Write a sequence for this structure.
């Protein structure tokens, strides 16, 4: 395995903790019912966003889905704009118009997210096309789930990106479920990465709960895109801990086996990585605690600012339909 | 007549029809019963859609059908709406009667090619030799920041495509009876259900029955003004009529039930009586269903109108997420009542 330097290791841990603690905060407040937007939580999948985004520059593009919190935070989006958006405030990143499923932060290449499954994939290809035509040194990343791989547009996008050797990276987070539907009920063949081979594309499948494995696979894909060698398809095997939408677990409703969830929880990407960090003496426990404390205070500040912010005025409804 | 009654809440049912010993059923249960009876009575019927066999069962409307009828007839699908619509259209051409279910109307644009270019036109293009008995159910969402991509009421889009029929039941009675008609119709039928109707209770007979297409229902008889309202707006219109009663205004509320074919006669007859028309819709006014009703009044009821037609619709903007913007976005009973007052002043 390629070496991952110390600074990167800390950065990976930090990104994962930011995603996790951010969403744990959502879980802790959601019962108050003042965050009136459907939340699709990323808890359990944080290593994917961290390992991919660790290679991305501010100007690189990402296009994301309904399950976008981790992608946005790891790409460096402004947290306070996200929290205010969750609370429907005027100061939200989309001025309260988008909610949880439609974050945006153009300043760091976060060009918007869609709640239509599969929608992010061609949009990211378009980002890559624009970069190529405009001769800009940018990579464009599509985040999407195993469910999005069901859509015809996934295949169409792979083909077009490969045909034009576009600087795109397709990041499929295979958490084995699309709402409550298991991959086995939807795919004739379980290996999504293989579909990239059909288009002659560099494709890889790896453990999405291992931050360094994600980091190393993504390094190759992002570097290939930057060097003009064309797109790659990465499939990361992972698991979401919460129900499809909302802050609760869903196994009690019969959505999936409890044992399956528990076995994945044992493979928590963050706990596993903390162990490595400690074992390799990258940080000691107090170093990890310090990161947690720092992230927590960022979260608290974002929350207080959001809750103190005004709601958009009614006239705001009519603005932004057109430019 | 108990089947035309619009009941605002369950208590109202218990205090009226329930007391007469009539069976009350929620909208969701009425749909479930319709599916069950259709699957039992016709082996050609199949139900397909994302989540139809999951523990939620499309908000209860397809709950456990797969256990009764097997996964050969009731099944989940890949998230591949356009492709699977094509599969359903092909299967319909070749002898099945698929009911294709979408949790949100917003996913219908994914299927547009197969619906608009294939399903709608196949019968005509084949000179009437091949028909497409396909029903496409979809739910209109609202609230809790569902926002622009999860709350659209897109039925008007489909009324613009020759070859499709479009229905929007407002009551549990109609949900069951129109689904039966839709499955038996033999043509592609777009079936729209507002998510907020699911808990409403009303009289639903146990046996299977069909509500014919093209026959609207008078939800409340009145002589001063005609309110034509669709789906969830029927309830807002009835509430508005109750508000107006206090001002001595007697409003007639008409629910067309099927948008295409449209019961023009019922609307024009009402207009002949009242001379004033307010249309309440769940979508934007521009080129929407409300515009069609207004055009009907202008073309065939011009001499009957004593005042300009008024429309109570959603603003011509995408659905916002913020709770405060949602409040500003959705009109309700008070807006309809206000439109009626203005129509009466003119
Ligand atoms: C086109 C479309 N069809 C259906 C849905 C309903 N839906 C929302 S999320 C989802 C599952 C998506 O699964 P996946 O792509 O694996 O992402 P995950 O939720 O697992 O992150 C579905 C079916 C939708 N939003 N868009
Ligand atoms: Mg998934």
């Amino acid at each position: 395995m390629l070496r991952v330097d110390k600074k990167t290791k800390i950065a990976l841990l930090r990104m994962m903790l930011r995603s996790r603690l951010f969403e744990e905060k959502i879980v802790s407040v959601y019962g108050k019912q003042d965050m009136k937007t459907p939340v699709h939580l990323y808890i359990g999948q944080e290593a994917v966003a961290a390992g991919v985004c660790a290679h991305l520059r501010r100007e690189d593009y990402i296009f994301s889905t309904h399950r976008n919190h981790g992608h946005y935070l790891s790409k460096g989006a402004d947290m306070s704009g996200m929290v205010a958006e969750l609370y429907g405030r005027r100061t939200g990143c989309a001025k309260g118009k988008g909610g949880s499923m439609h974050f945006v932060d153009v300043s760091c290449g976060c060009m918007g997210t869609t709640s239509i499954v599969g929608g992010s994939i061609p949009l990211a290809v378009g980002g890559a096309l624009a970069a190529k035509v405009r001769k800009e040194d940018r990579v464009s990343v599509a985040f999407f789930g195993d469910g999005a791989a069901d859509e015809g547009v996934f295949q169409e996008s792979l083909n077009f990106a490969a045909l034009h050797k576009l600087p795109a990276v397709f990041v499929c987070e295979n958490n084995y479920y699309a709402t409550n539907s298991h991959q086995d009920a939807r795919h004739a063949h379980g290996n999504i990465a293989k579909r990239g081979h059909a288009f002659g594309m560099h494709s890889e499948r790896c453990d999405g709960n291992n931050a360094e494995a994600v980091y190393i696979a993504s390094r190759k894909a992002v570097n290939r895109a930057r060097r003009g060698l064309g797109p790659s398809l990465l499939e990361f095997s992972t698991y979401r801990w919460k129900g499809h939408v909302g802050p609760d677990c869903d196994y009690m409703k019969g959505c999936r086996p409890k044992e399956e969830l528990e076995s994945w929880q044992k493979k928590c990407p963050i706990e596993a990585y903390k162990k490595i960090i400690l074992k390799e003496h990258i940080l000691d426990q107090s170093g990890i605690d310090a990161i947690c404390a720092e992230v927590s205070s960022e979260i608290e500040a974002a929350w207080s600012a959001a809750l103190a912010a005004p709601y958009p005025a009614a006239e705001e409804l009519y603005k932004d339909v057109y430019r | 007549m108990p089947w035309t009654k619009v009941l605002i809440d369950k208590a109202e049912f218990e205090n009226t029809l329930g007391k007469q010993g009539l069976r009350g059923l929620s909208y969701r249960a009425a749909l479930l019963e319709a599916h069950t009876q259709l699957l039992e009575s016709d082996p050609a019927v199949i139900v397909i859609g994302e989540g139809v066999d999951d523990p939620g069962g499309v908000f209860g409307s397809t709950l456990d059908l797969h256990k009764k009828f097997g996964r050969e007839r009731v099944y989940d699908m890949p998230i591949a709406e356009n492709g699977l619509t094509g599969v359903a259209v092909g299967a319909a051409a070749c002898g099945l009667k698929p009911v294709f279910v979408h949790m949100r109307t917003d996913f219908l644009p994914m299927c547009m090619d197969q619906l608009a270019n294939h399903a709608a036109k196949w019968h005509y293009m084949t000179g009437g030799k091949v028909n497409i008995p396909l029903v496409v159910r979809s739910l209109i969402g609202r609230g809790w920041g569902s926002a622009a991509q999860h709350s659209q009421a897109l039925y008007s889009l489909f009324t613009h495509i020759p070859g499709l029929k479009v229905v929007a039941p407002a009551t549990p009675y109609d949900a069951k009876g129109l689904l039966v008609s839709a499955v038996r119709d033999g043509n592609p039928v777009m079936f729209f259900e507002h998510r907020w109707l699911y808990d409403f209770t009303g009289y639903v007979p146990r046996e299977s029955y069909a509500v014919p297409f093209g026959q609207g229902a008078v939800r409340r008889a009145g002589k001063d003004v005609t309110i034509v309202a669709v789906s969830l707006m029927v309830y807002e219109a009835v509430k508005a009529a109750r508000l107006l009663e206090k001002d001595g205004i007697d409003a007639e509320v008409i629910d067309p039930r099927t948008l295409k074919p449209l019961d023009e006669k019922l609307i024009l007859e009402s207009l002949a009586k009242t001379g004033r028309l307010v249309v309440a819709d769940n979508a934007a006014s521009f080129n929407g269903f409300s515009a069609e009703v207004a055009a009907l009044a202008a073309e065939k009821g011009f001499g009957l109108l004593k005042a300009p037609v008024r429309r109570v619709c959603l603003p011509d903007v995408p659905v916002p997420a913020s709770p405060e913007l949602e409040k500003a976005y959705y009109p309700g009973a008070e807006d309809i009542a206000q439109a009626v007052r203005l129509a009466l002043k003119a």
User: Anything to note?
Assistant: The longest helix of chain A spans residues 6-29. Chain A has one domain: 6-307. The longest strand of chain A covers residues 168-174.
